[in-house]
Structure prediction request, 378 residues.
Amino acid sequence: MPPIDLADSPIIDHHAHALIKAQPQTVAQLQGYFTESADPTIKAKFVPDSIMWMRGIRELAAYFGCDPTPEAVLAAHSAIPLPDLANQMWSAMNSGALFIDYGFGAAINYSVEEQRVFIQQPIEKILRLEWFLQDLIVELSTFRQVEEAFFARVASARADGHLGLKSIIAYRTGLDIQWVTRDEAMRAFGPVKDKADLDGKLRLADKTLCDYFVLLALEIANQQELPIQFHTGFGDTDVDLIKANPLYMRPLFQSGRFNRVPFVLLHSAYPYTRELGYLAAQYPNIYMDTSLAIPFITTEIPRMLHQIFGMTPLSKVLYSSDAFSIPEIFYLANKWGRAALEQVLGELVDSDALTVQQALKAGRDILGDNARRVYQFS
Ligand SMILES: [Zn+2]
Prediction:
């Protein structure tokens, strides 16, 4: 197999999260970061039996030069100040920029501003729609006020320093987004607002409102050609995975109303990876992100990349880590992602599907240059 070496290709990590202030102090806490499950028994009892953990601990031990035990890895982690550890791990994997969706865990994580002080690579912002929308519903009185404030925030997103929008509607009410009228949305608002007033907070999960406001954001994004990320496939524990199949979004793409919106569909839509690969191959403005499946499907990553590359144009595939909280998850995602790309592109050269030059260009594009183009990031 010809060596496809992508070590010099910087990663533009266009879907990432912030570091958490309270870093893990115990092995049990460390285990919690190696699963997408919120179930305490999964975290405590079954994570140690996962390849994500077993291989991860061994490779982290190799990085730290310590014994391949969770205790030794945790001790090594704790011995290095967080900014140093994070920068070293990003630098070891040639990470060139982070695009952070800062809506996730805002109170317990470092803010974008704080991280810009101690992280030695550019940090860009992505605006998560549902989080500020539910705050607006709590804070404001009427539907019209919420609508106007939402419109203003999305319309000025780019001017306010965001490279794109993000929706988590897949994990709230599903990707089968319906054409909701303003009247229907106004009617749905009443009971939701009453409950928000009663509780003093809101986890927005009303389908009519979620659909209405996502469509409103898409209209603005279309005018501004502003990229929007959608979670698809597995991810947060509140996902109804059936409704996270990106094929549910086909009516939106087919409508022609949002042809100028670059849609970046996240998480490889795993396990609907081929479905997403198909959509990206059919519609000019649909892009496929490979995150979360990388690193969480571990030994399956090369097979998944083969499934994607078979049909999807290589200029439409974007690597990201979707890593969060601790530097080690970024490190493992970036390490496994780049290694799998090198392996699979090498195999494609081997089978005469690509020339070495084409494979090297595809690797550079997927790790960073495709994201630069889609988000107009230089
Ligand atoms: Zn994600």
